[in-house]
């Protein structure tokens, strides 16, 4: 099963981090997403996608800048944001997605 199939077939909330090894802001956001993954274990999962290794998937999600974080609930996109953001911002976005909101761009 491909990464794309896994993302779209996964029930619940999936936070997809489109990143690259050479991306400075991506390295800033990584520890925040790791904390989110631990804090929301069982309620949300975080998946890292390296755009250099998965360019077709990045293109399918219309990723034009990094980091881009896409929130999928039951395989459907419910929100996204671009750039390194503080933990409070990311927690707000995740909370909104868990609460059932759609079209999320900010907490």
Query: How far is the first residue's CA from the last residue's CA?
Result: 33 Å
Give the full name of the CATH homologous superfamily: Glutaredoxin
CATH architect. name = 3-Layer(aba) Sandwich
Mass-distribution shape: globular
Quickly list its features.
107 residues; alpha+beta; Glutaredoxin; 4 helices; globular
Description:
Helices cover 39% and strands 25% of the residues. It has a single domain (3-99), classed as Glutaredoxin (3-Layer(aba) Sandwich), CATH 3.40.30. It is of the alpha+beta class and 107 residues long. The protein contains 4 helices and 4 strands; from the N terminus they run αβαβαββα.
In short:
It contains four helices and four strands. It is an alpha+beta fold and 107 residues long.
Topology overview:
Layout: H1 3-9, E1 13-19, H2 24-39, E2 44-50, H3 55-60, E3 68-73, E4 76-82, H4 87-99
Parallel strand pairs: 1-2
Antiparallel strand pairs: 1-3, 3-4
